Amino acid sequence: MKHVVFLCFFGLLGIMAMAQTQDAAQLYKDGKQLMQQGDYDNAVMVLNNALQQDPNNLDIQKDLAFANFLNRDYTSAINVSKKIIAQPGADEQAYQILGMCYKAIAEYKEAGDLYEKGLKKFPNSGVLYNEYGEMLAMNKTLDKAIQYWEKGIEADPNYSSNYFNAAMYYAQNNDNLLWVMYYGEIFINLESYTTRTASMKSTILDAYKKLYTQYKPEQWGSGYKKTPFALAFFQVLKNSIYQIATGVTPDNLMAVRTRFILDWYNSGLNQQFPSRLFDQWQYFLRDGMFEAYNQWIFGAAASPVNYQNWVQTHTAQADAFKQYQASRIFKIPLGQYYHQ
Q1: Domain residues for 310?
Q2: Is the pTM value of this prediction over 0.85?
Q3: Parts of the chain with a pLDDT under 50
């Protein structure tokens, strides 16, 4: 009889623990939903209740810290985040949230120390390289910021924000137009439908316009003597200079880029400098989608009205390209970094 009571007692404890876990899971779900709705006060309260029931749950802790951050209660967010990164299971997102809090209150030294610590633990984290760069930019040290965005591109080539920030940085300096065009186009393939995508398309188009209107072809590679990829790029691009004679338009850029990709592969430069971006150009050209792709970039940037007219008069091409975008994931292999 004693054994029966003993077993029943521990069985009851197990049921109570399961009920608590279920309650914590439901509270966590409710808290996340409140965050998504923008009700940060209630989200913090509910997530705190969830954490009381499941105090070792790192996901609840991270979302509680983030909810406090969104609620602009930076002190609470920092306190929770510090406890998280002190735990062995803390991931790069935990460092990101704490860094965002430090940036919000302009505690740049603390943020820098945090990112250094985080990158020692996660040396290939594109997120942390990007956050570090943004912090340095906020602290008006852009020359250092670009170093971290470049490191992020090299270490984690599929994290889009490093490309965005690097391209926008180089857009301020006409001597780096290649990297505006190249990084910018990689960015819009990684992040195809956001407000940043639209602004980057305009930035890419402006870079092409500056290249052709402000510089002679013999000047194109002057700032790239230590970058073999850039020198090769400009050497091939010169072959199609005559196709831009009537202006930097979406149609002319289509012709320029068609000639470029044919020459790039015919000369074997794809073997010397493998590029996922250029592989995609070649695929689009071979599959009849290159015009739709170029219109999506340059047509939309030059004139949204004209681009919509093009879509309406080229429905088969536009639909095929849209379907391709919706069904594929653009990923860049490690080792295709050439800005050295």
Answers
A1: 204-340
A2: yes
A3: 1-20
